[in-house]
Amino acid sequence: MSKHNPPGPFHPASAMDFLPPGQLREVQFTRLKGMVQRAYDRVALFRQRMGERNLTPADLKSLDDLVKLPFTVKMDLRDAYPFGLFASPLQEIVRFHASSGTTGKPIVVAYTQEDVDDWARAMVRSFAACGVHSGDIIQNAYGYGLFTGGLGAHYGAEALGASVIPISGGNTDRQIMVLKDFGVTVICCTPSYFLHLIERAGELGVNLKELPLRAGVFGAEPWTESMRQRIQAESGIRAYDIYGLSEIVGPGVAMECQHQSGPHIFEDMFYPEIIDPQTGQVLPDGAEGELVLTTLCKRAMPMIRYRTRDITSLAADRCACGRSLRRICRISRRSDDMLIIRGVNLYPSQIEAALLRVEGTLPHYQIIVDRQKGLDTLEVQVEVTPEVFSDTVGAMEQLQAKLSHSIESITGLHADVRLVMPRTLQRSEGKAKRVHDRRQM
Ligand code: DLL
């Protein structure tokens, strides 16, 4: 089998990717009006924010009027925990997912059956864009569960008619065995996890270049062009960038085509804007700023002008694939302090909350993120009180275990906790630098 087989057959769901720009704007505006009306009628917070600006849905006369509408931010989802922003009654909700909030509680997102179907359609378009088709065997190593990656890719792959292996994340040796034995052609996981797979495959004497594997659908965390080049050179596959976030739908908000020139946003479903994160001013195509997204189809939880905190720019030049959809450039950073570790979102404030739950620690800590053998590692160093420090080794170990458990219960991540003597961590003179991210992309 050739590694780089030609593009799969044209998928009918991709037709929307090629709408002429005028028609695309018409579709966007019609959908936007429906969405704003729905949010206004059904979501108290949105109605109140519109009211504060003396706006009603009737003031939306064209797409350009979108700028008049208020932003939605992560804090709104947190404040509405768990169901406060739903626009559908619970009887119509068929699925929940959740993602890290900035404190102990996650943010909750919900889907009606139509939302799940739309999401699957966005994922079908994503797979089709990079040449994945119904004959493919897809190993889905995104985590299944509250994280949107696993089930999002799964439903899309099934709707595409591909054969899905719902292996979920972890257990690298088994992943490699399955890759080999099932004749897997496409893998879905975070780029850092695939790097780890490459390394482990090398240790096990498995040459990925000799397998039928030809493409990877990689996302959920920032990665660079050089990381892509390294992955491609070492594994012989093509590595495609997929972008998404729980608040909007999950994976499938934007996806690269075979030209690998940045993910195309499925603009008929998700309306993008770029703003100056300081002033909120909308910026033109090409300018770098914060990505703001408005859902145009979501029923259970419409998001109007959601501030993603992801810093990028929009490329409007025509891609060689002919899609009329604009592309996002690589997410260079975030405008908040969220870290992504092994695909899991983490805010330093969550660690703080976890530490403060446990007695015997001082409020001085440091978070050290690194990458070993392609896998992200998380270490938390925390100062303990002098009494604890003079305690027995057993007591120290107990405290360590307690802290580790507290962190895991809030963040879902395992952290190596290191207890250090009082006054050993560096004190800051201004903003505390609590996070040391030593990962090199
Ligand atoms: O990570 C959804 C997803 C799953 C996307 C699988 C792609 C593949 P959250 O857990 O809510 O959702 O995290 C969303 O992850 O705001 C970005 O900061 C980051 N992110 C997601 N995809 C990319 C990417 C999923 N391709 C947050 N490049 C987003 C850079 C990404 N960052």
Which fold name corresponds to the CATH topology of the largest domain?
Rossmann fold
Percentage of β-strand residues: 15-25%
Mean of all residue-level pLDDT scores: 93
Query: In whole angstroms, how far apart are the ends?
Result: 32 Å
What does this structure look like?
This protein has 441 residues and is α/β, with parallel strands linked by helices. It folds into two domains: 12-336, Rossmann fold, CATH 3.40.50; 341-437, GMP Synthetase, Chain A, domain 3. The chain has eleven helices and 22 strands. The chain has helices at 21-42, 44-52, 74-79, 113-129, 148-160, 172-181, 191-203, 225-235, 348-356, 386-389, 393-411, and strands at residues 93-99, 107-112, 137-140, 163-165, 186-189, 215-219, 238-245, 250-255, 264-265, 270-275, 282-283, 289-295, 306-312, 314-315, 327-328, 333-334, 339-341, 344-346, 361-372, 375-384, 416-420, 435-437. Strands 4-3-5-6-7-8-9 form a seven-stranded mixed β-sheet, sandwiched between helices. Strands 11-10-12-13-16 form a five-stranded antiparallel β-sheet. α7 (191-203) links the parallel β5 and β6. α4 crosses α5, α6 (172-181) packs across α7 and α9 crosses α11. The radius of gyration is 23 Å and the shape is globular. 5'-O-[hydroxy(phenylacetyl)phosphoryl]adenosine is lined by residues 99, 142, 147-149, 219-222, 241-246, 250-251, 308, 310, 331, 334, 340, 345.
